[in-house]
Design a protein that fits this description.
Elements lengths: L1 H12 L5 H12 L7 H13 L3 H14 L3 H17 L3 H14 L6 H14 L3 H12 L7 H13 L3
Amino acid sequence: MDDWQDRIDGVWSDDTLSEAEVVERIDALATERPEDDPVALFERAGARDSAGLEAEAEVLYRRALDRGLDEERRTRATIQLASTIRNLGKIDEALALLRAEYERQPRGPLHDAAAAFYALALVSAGEAERAASIALETLAPHLPLYTRSVTGYAREIADGHA
């Protein structure tokens, strides 16, 4: 698997490839794995997502998640699926997926990514203040100063007092 993943990573890191070439190469590498291999499905979904083929990506993300992914890829696939379906106008489902991911692992390695996409979905749903609160609360621990103040303001926004 490592050699295969290294080759997949090589495709992703090759800035000379067009979006269509990325899809083509990822698909070619995916044929080396079983047809319903969840990791191959996930990579194929990501390639289509990057190429703006959201409807095709959605189907592949769902299949990958249904077949089971390791924890990191499951989180990534959930975030990416939610972003894709938000772009397809399925905002309520995107919000539900992202909220669950955001609340699931507050200290997880992809928590900030989940927060960013959750905030974007909240904006799409017309909840800009809640989105700002989520974004500020996520940003606050990364600030060299003012962490407590920004966290407090984020909570005030969430409570409707800002």
